[in-house]
Design a protein that fits this description.
Blueprint lengths: L20 H8 L3 E5 L2 E4 L1 H20 L3 E2 L5 E3 H7 L1 H4 L5 E4 L5 E4 L4 H9 L10 E10 L14 E11 L2 H21 L4 E5 L10 E7 L5 E6 L19 H8 L3 E3 L5 H7 L5 E16 L1 H6 L2 E3 L5 E3 L1 E8 H11 L1 E2 L2 E2 L10 E5 L5 H16 L4 E4 L5 H11 L3 E5 L1 H6 L2 E5 L5 E4 L1 H9 L1
Parallel strand pairs: 3-7, 19-20, 19-21
Antiparallel strand pairs: 1-2, 4-6, 5-6, 7-8, 8-16, 9-10, 10-13, 11-12, 11-13, 13-16, 14-15, 17-18, 21-22, 22-23
Helix pairs in contact: 1-10, 2-6, 2-10
The protein binds one RNA strand through strand 8, strand 13, strand 16, helix 10 and helix 12.
Length: 439
RNA sequence: CGGGGUGUGGCGCAGCCUGGUAGCGCAAUUGCUUUGGGAGCAAUGGGUCGCAGGUUCAAAUCCUGCCGCCCCGACCA
């Protein structure tokens, strides 16, 4: 993409309404624009990141055996009356009446709808297990939207639902999602820590929040320090094998958010030098809820014994749009955003230090073509801004590599390659620079 | 919803107390000079001062009501 033809409205000054780093940087880097409290336009650069995150989540869901579908944003109130949640959900649900006076709502989540879809199609245990997910916009009329896209009212969420014949099957499904989540967040360059979460009336140990550490996190968290850098299963993970060891390695060490925190237990179980008190952002939540919806909505299957039983269900959420903000909170500096490679909107920022100079232009065009041909996303700054302005802008939008091409380097047959994360700069031959970027 | 703040060109702000027909910086446009970390000079364009009502000869400024947005708290991906 050539910057001269792109749509990247960056801001030099900090917008007054943005208090936290990610919100401020997203506005300044031209990623989003607010249209109402908690509601945002995703500008091209922001959308590019959102799609990268979405892609990783989708990829890891499929790898774990989940199947994608797409449910609508608008739902009928009748469905929610069956589960009893139409009244229970409260004012956070946006209710709408259509022209025929039918009660509708803008979906805050999809348990009812997925249960309805499932019960209409599945009758036998032979069709189990299944795990269905979608990545769809949700609306929750938050009391107080804040922190930019981190707590918006309209937000993009991956929500998945598992269906099993019995509790043991549901546990297997839960473990798969647990591991899938570890992998998803790790691929985005995040260190996510699963923490025991409130299971509500169901009870048990089958609910975890995935927390990433950040000073501006909404909740206080307490955990064993070893959890932070614990290695995550690699690409060779076999989801059909026993995943219990992976989960046990994490759940046996202390980790809790403030609502579940037990200070005495924390002190007793975790050595002083391993105690970590910090703040965290919840980016995912997995939950086993048994027959809560299948019973109230009649999602029954016939078992091998010929008897009908309600299916055992779990739900699994990832805040996709929140992750954009969360990644920035975890990865930025004074100059701007520092994108992890996997979610960067472009891999390379190609900086032409003297647009209009025939030799420099030709060298840049050559890089642009070669990188593009290798499938690498390049943002080529071909504008006639001054060098300083271009550097600042590149640092702000945080692309992993900056390839700086100017007349001075061309004379000596070199270009400058800068790694945004470390600030490290190298003078390289064009070939060496290309090789390094291509990895 | 309780508490606190705020609303003035695209962005950041001053002016309001003490009413007199709107100003600064950045950005934009044009020209010249500059050109390896957010350049300089000159000129130009752009604002029903959140909305509605009231007081007054006169309202961004005073009064009343409404709305938007931000921050702190209880809830949540």
């Amino acid at each position: 993409m050539r910057l001269s033809r792109y749509f990247l409205p960056t801001l030099k000054e900090n917008p007054a309404e943005a208090q936290i780093a990610s919100h401020r940087l997203m506005l300044r880097a031209g990623m989003v624009r607010q249209t109402a409290a908690g509601i945002y336009v995703w500008l091209p650069l922001g959308l590019a990141v959102l799609r990268k995150i979405e892609g990783i989540v989708r990829d890891e869901q499929k790898r774990a055996g989940a199947i994608e579908l797409l449910m609508p944003t608008l739902q009928s109130a009748d469905l929610w009356r069956q589960s009893g949640r139409y009244d229970a959900y409260g004012p956070e649900m946006l209710r709408i009446v259509d022209r025929h006076e039918r009660d509708m709502l803008y979906g805050p989540t999809n348990e009812e709808m997925i249960t309805d879809i499932f019960r209409g199609a599945v009758r036998s245990y032979r069709d189990l297990p299944r795990n269905l997910f979608h990545i769809q916009w949700k609306f929750r009329d938050e009391i107080r939207p804040r922190f930019g896209v981190m707590r918006g009212r309209e937000f993009l969420m991956k929500d998945g639902y598992s269906f099993d014949l019995d509790v043991e099957g549901a546990r297997r499904a839960y473990r798969k999602m647990f591991v899938s989540y570890l992998r998803s967040f790790a691929r985005m360059g995040l260190k996510a820590i699963p923490m025991a979460a409130d299971t509500g009336p169901i009870g048990g140990d089958m609910s975890h929040e995935f927390i990433i550490l950040a000073e501006t996190g909404e909740s206080a968290v307490f955990c064993h320090r070893d959890l932070v850098d614990m290695p995550v299963p690699g690409d060779d993970i076999d989801y059909e094998a026993d995943l219990t060891p992976v989960i046990d390695a994490r759940t046996t060490l202390y980790a809790a958010t403030d609502e579940k925190h037990d200070a005495a237990k924390f002190d007793a179980d975790v050595p002083k030098d391993k105690q970590l008190s910090a703040r965290g952002i919840e980016v995912g939540h997995i939950f086993f809820f048994g027959t809560k919806y299948s019973e109230s909505m009649g999602a029954l299957v016939t078992g091998p014994d010929g008897k009908e039983t309600p299916v055992q269900m779990g739900s699994y959420g990832i805040g996709v749009s929140r992750l954009v903000g969360a990644i920035i909170e975890a990865s930025h500096d004074d100059a701007g955003i520092v994108w992890p490679d996997a979610v960067a909107p472009f891999q390379v920022g190609l900086v032409n230090l003297k647009s209009g100079d025939a030799e420099t232009d030709a060298a840049c065009e050559s890089f642009y073509d070669k990188l593009t041909a290798r499938g690498i996303d390049v943002l080529y700054d071909d504008t006639d801004e001054r060098a300083g302005a271009k550097f600042s802008n590149m640092d702000l939008i945080g692309l992993p590599w900056q390839l700086v091409v100017g007349p001075r380097g061309i004379k000596s047959g070199t270009v400058e390659l800068k790694r945004r994360a470390t600030g490290e700069k190298e003078e390289l031959s064009p070939e060496a620079a290309l090789a390094k970027i291509a990895g």
